[in-house]
Amino acid sequence: MSNRDEVMDIRKRAIERAIHYMHLHIYESLSLFDIADVSAYSPFHFSRVFKKILGVSPLYYFSTLKFQKAKELLLKTDLTIQDICLDIGHQSLGTFTTAFTRRVGLSPSSFRSSFMQLEENLQLIWDIQTDKKDIIKDSDTVISGIISGTKSFQKGIILIGLFSKVVPEGIPKYLKLMSQPGKFQFTGIKPGIYYLKAIVITENLTPMNIYLPQDLLGAKIEKPIIINKAFPRRERIEMILKERKNTDRTVLVSLPLLIQRYLKEKIRAI
What we know:
The protein is of the alpha+beta class. Helix content is 43%, strand content 19%.
């Protein structure tokens, strides 16, 4: 192992310790100093290393874990939204609701009530054939490539989204569903900065696994994709589906919501 690889390994282990600490203290209000102390780095150095590897600051990542915990409490307990809001450290119900809606895609109450609709929507997804081979279209602005599977890939759907943030949260700017690995293409892309993410939903997953995605197969492109007049096309992107790691970013966006949106567009096109 080279010195550079050794340094990177040390940094990743420090980040894993910090993330583990965040999970243990998910109901508390932690400062950057608290989290950095576990990593044995100074707050400034730790924040810089953390953001370089994960793309977001430690405190933003911690807030993501808190919203993920809120999703879990909404589905697995009868706690009121007010109680959940206070449990994860928010003092204002209005602020919590606004932030949750922005980052998950649904309000807390809608997220909780939508659980019963998922099974029906999944059945529709299996019945409606998703694109086995993406139709290549001519367009001025294009993001295209190929996504490869693994031996652990089973029958299911692959959700591919172009997000405006490095963390997959909120509604992606563009969304595509595929029934198997292969070529994909987004056309008519507006100028902007995008982060390409993919996640797999297989038939053997329970509704709870889909609502609270933790160990699903996924793929991502680390560097942002920039589309503008000078660079209107980004092609030959290669994505490989892999098992999720502890240091991967939490998927906050409601996957059932993305499925529902896809179905509406599909049915509208029939």
